[in-house]
Amino acid sequence: MASDQKPADLETETTKAVEEPPRPPKSTSLDKCVTVDVVLRVVLFAATLTSLLVLVYQQSVKAPPRHRLSLRRRGGGQVQSLARFHLSCRYLAAAASVTCLYSIITILASISVLLKPAFNTSFLIFFAIWDVVILGVMASATGAAGAVAYIGLKGNRHTNWAKVCNVYDKFCQHLAGSIAVALFASIVLVFLIVLSVLSLHKKIPK
Amino acid sequence: MASDQKPADLETETTKAVEEPPRPPKSTSLDKCVTVDVVLRVVLFAATLTSLLVLVYQQSVKAPPRHRLSLRRRGGGQVQSLARFHLSCRYLAAAASVTCLYSIITILASISVLLKPAFNTSFLIFFAIWDVVILGVMASATGAAGAVAYIGLKGNRHTNWAKVCNVYDKFCQHLAGSIAVALFASIVLVFLIVLSVLSLHKKIPK
């Protein structure tokens, strides 16, 4: 009986070894990287959506299109000025929209990488390159909106550029919030690129 | 004699084989990448230095410090306004200075990588991460200066932000040139990061 059991035990052990091959530690750490990537991309999505919604919300609350038009016809200078101030922040709204859409696409792509790790390297290259382009757009839009908002807040008495924020305090608070969130999104993008670079580095044999 | 010559020939061949081992194609392509990297960094240095010099030059020509001070005491509004307009572009000057200094350091580092390819991977990681940070700074500075210059060029009649460029035409031309070169530097930084990522990708075994 004892001699019969031995081959059976060996067989079971062999089957176990075939069924559960020991996973290399590298792929586990890469899985962790992809998980962090997904989390950061969700944060990026939330940040850009918040920035966009705050910009759109304040525009709709302060000066709805019809009201703006009727006031324009009557010569309503103040509401027009607000709308005009908004125009200079259109670039930020456009950049936030593009980044938001991009983050949705890359969240789905990252999840697909988690499910099928074979495409990992191709996606890492794709992510790293496009993240850099999106970072450039977001950073410049944040800088542009920040500069205009600063003039709106402080004015410039030498060039006779008047303050706007002492009249539209809530508008400026919203705008500042939107810019702060956009800046946060840019920093998240920097972290995402660094993560992609480090993930690529992990794949290089030492 | 013929039998004596044969071992001598063999020895020469063996020595040749030891002296000149066939170089793998990968390292050649990586050398090319490092060469392109050095060239791009030299272009980056030239672009940021040009941007910085144009900003500093126009400031010194238009309003030298003593003249500015004396006019300020007398209440010289126009020259003050120019100086004030400059202040809003200080961020671009600071960003260009930092990028210029950074490009010098990385040119030297890239040349050292060409001489000692053993440090290649470590430098690629270093370059990629710092390039991303510098790109964020340069892009936001370009955006900020561009936004302020646009207000200076077009004005904003609704917020009573007057044009400045119809008075200081040469100043605005210089500023536009400086911003254009800064934008070019940002694009060069994008290419540098993409190059680093692709170089890392080449080192991954397929």
Automatic annotation (TrEMBL), chains A, B:
<dbReference type="Pfam" id="PF04535">
    <property type="entry name" value="CASP_dom"/>
</dbReference>
<protein>
    <recommendedName>
        <fullName>CASP-like protein</fullName>
    </recommendedName>
</protein>
<dbReference type="InterPro" id="IPR044173">
    <property type="entry name" value="CASPL"/>
</dbReference>
<feature type="transmembrane region" description="Helical">
    <location>
        <begin position="127"/>
        <end position="153"/>
    </location>
</feature>
<keyword id="KW-0472">Membrane</keyword>
<comment type="similarity">
    <text>Belongs to the Casparian strip membrane proteins (CASP) family.</text>
</comment>
<keyword id="KW-1133">Transmembrane helix</keyword>
<dbReference type="InterPro" id="IPR006459">
    <property type="entry name" value="CASP/CASPL"/>
</dbReference>
<feature type="domain" description="Casparian strip membrane protein">
    <location>
        <begin position="33"/>
        <end position="188"/>
    </location>
</feature>
<feature type="transmembrane region" description="Helical">
    <location>
        <begin position="174"/>
        <end position="198"/>
    </location>
</feature>
<feature type="region of interest" description="Disordered">
    <location>
        <begin position="1"/>
        <end position="29"/>
    </location>
</feature>
<comment type="subunit">
    <text>Homodimer and heterodimers.</text>
</comment>
<feature type="transmembrane region" description="Helical">
    <location>
        <begin position="38"/>
        <end position="57"/>
    </location>
</feature>
<dbReference type="GO" id="GO:0005886">
    <property type="term" value="C:plasma membrane"/>
</dbReference>
<keyword id="KW-0812">Transmembrane</keyword>
<feature type="compositionally biased region" description="Basic and acidic residues">
    <location>
        <begin position="1"/>
        <end position="23"/>
    </location>
</feature>
<feature type="transmembrane region" description="Helical">
    <location>
        <begin position="91"/>
        <end position="115"/>
    </location>
</feature>
<dbReference type="InterPro" id="IPR006702">
    <property type="entry name" value="CASP_dom"/>
</dbReference>
<keyword id="KW-1003">Cell membrane</keyword>
